[in-house]
């Protein structure tokens, strides 16, 4: 790739980021939370994705760390973002989709864990149970949530 093409791509990305930031910032200056994703893949044209919060302009929810904290959907997402891909599964390139039903106990701890859709490999079940046993949900005792988890490897190839 020539230096002119590289410069043009870099310049275009910077201009797009600056203009997007400027326009989005002016839409809701007092309650702004942006998410920008830049995807670069070897041998491909860069793609740039912007997204605004769902409740743009309504102001942040300051009652907790997350804007939707305390709702089952938010708790599921919060927890799923903390589950780590088991290194031994990564080495073997194992993947699986699984689901569990979790009953919330006192102090937000998981009381009962029931497998709804079993994992193909035991390593994922072990990782989930290890993660959920130390997790504190921000839901009242007695709530029942279903947590679907997809253990998939994203490849750049």
From TrEMBL:
InterPro entries with a match to the protein in the record: TonB_C
Record-linked Pfam families: TonB_C
Keywords, comma-separated and alphabetical: Membrane, Receptor, Transmembrane, Transmembrane helix
Keyword Heme: no
Parts of the chain that traverse the membrane: 6-24
Region feature (Disordered): 51-71
Bias (Polar residues): 58-68
Domain TonB C-terminal residue range list: 82-151
GO biological process: transmembrane transport
Name this polypeptide is given: TonB-dependent receptor
Organism encoding this protein: Leptospira andrefontaineae
Biological classification of the source: Bacteria, Pseudomonadati, Spirochaetota, Spirochaetia, Leptospirales
